[in-house]
Amino acid sequence: TAAMIRLGAALSKRPQRVIFNSRVSARQHEAMGYDGSRAEIIPNGFDCDRFAPDPDAHRRLADRLQVGQDTVLIGLLGRYHPMKDHAGFLRAAKVIAGARRDVHFVLAGRGVTVENRTIAFQARDLGIDTLVHVLGEVDEVAPLVAGLDILCSASAWGEGFPNVVGEAMASGVPCVVTDVGDSAWVVGELGRVVPPAEPAALAAECRDLIEMGRQERMLLGMAGRDRVLQRFSLQAVTRSYETLYSEMLAGNPIVRHEELH
Q1: How many Cβ atoms sit within 10 Å of the Cβ of residue 221?
Q2: What is the 3 state secondary structure string of the chain?
Q3: Residues 6 or more apart whose Cβ sits within 8 Å of residue 221
Q4: Residues 6+ apart with CB under 8 A from 80
Q5: In sequence order, what are the residues at sequence separation of 6 or more whose Cβ sits closer than 8 angstroms to the Cβ of residue 249?
Q6: Which member of 52, 105, 148, 169 has the greatest number of CB atoms within 10 A?
Q7: pLDDT one-digit tens code per residue, 117-155
Q8: Dihedral, CA atoms, 96, 59, 116, 114, nearest 10 degrees?
Q9: How far is CA 183 from CA 54, 110, 166, 210, in A?
Q10: What gap in Å lies between CA 41 and CA 232, rounded to an integer?
Q11: pTM (global) more than 0.90
Q12: Burial 222-231 (b: 16+ CB within 10 A, else e)
């Protein structure tokens, strides 16, 4: 892989465009010698019919977890890996739970199972094991995402373009994310962004959204969905590819690329 990346850098002046799906990826490749003037950022697109607000999803998820309908559900969805910082999320959960006991925390993803002793021991040591629900890898993510009140991305490093954040926003769920990869770009002004590996900051933003109330969170979430529809929907991304290919076929010599920094 490293050899292919180096070869790509040597050849990067030959194509009219080099397409990246995230700003951070474009910057990383430019640092490795790729011609930044030819970079074109076209993000991942989301199926906004599949990932959409569902008024009944919260009730179904609360019933599945056997918690009350007024319980605030905060989720971290992602495979178990140190970069996802499940440990930091659980420390933030302890801070949140210290102020409010009507909040539960939902973890799902590959390796995020009841057999994962690290998660189980940490939740127990923090005194929040009764508030943490571990669901493992989920076949159909859309109903789970739509049932959350808040989606967190607590990644400490390594993110590129965070699909789960876009899926949550498309579902009308407000997000609190760490400033890793393109997370801050995806949420824009409609999400909460905190430094990585700072559980207290993550907790503070989550608590602020909780205090906002369900109706205000819903309005914020719908504004986030509008952002995804305009910039990150399958239709919007398809138009970006069509425009780019049309320019290339027309022999457009102008190098147009989105600001990487």
Answers
A1: 27
A2: CHHHHHHHHHHCCCCCCEEECCHHHHHHHHHCCCCHHHEEECCCCECCCCCCCCCCHHHHHHHHHCCCCCCEEEEEECCCCHHHCHHHHHHHHHHHHHHCCCEEEEEECCCCCCCCHHHHHHHHHCCCHHHEEECCCCCCHHHHHHCCCEEEECCCCCCCCCHHHHHHHHCCCCEEEECCCCHHHHHHHHCEEECCCCHHHHHHHHHHHHHHCHHHHHHHHHHHHHHHHHHCEHHHHHHHHHHHHHHHHCCCCCCCCCCCC
A3: 53, 169, 171, 172, 173, 174
A4: 86, 109, 110, 111, 112, 116, 119
A5: none
A6: 169
A7: 999 999 999 999 999 999 999 999 999 999 999 999 999
A8: 130
A9: 24, 21, 9, 21
A10: 12
A11: yes
A12: ebbbebbeeb
Digit-coded pLDDT (tens) for 204-231: 999 999 999 999 999 999 999 999 999 9
Three-state SS string across 165-188, please?
Answer: HHHHHHCCCCEEEECCCCHHHHHH
- Tokens 């799902």 belong to 108
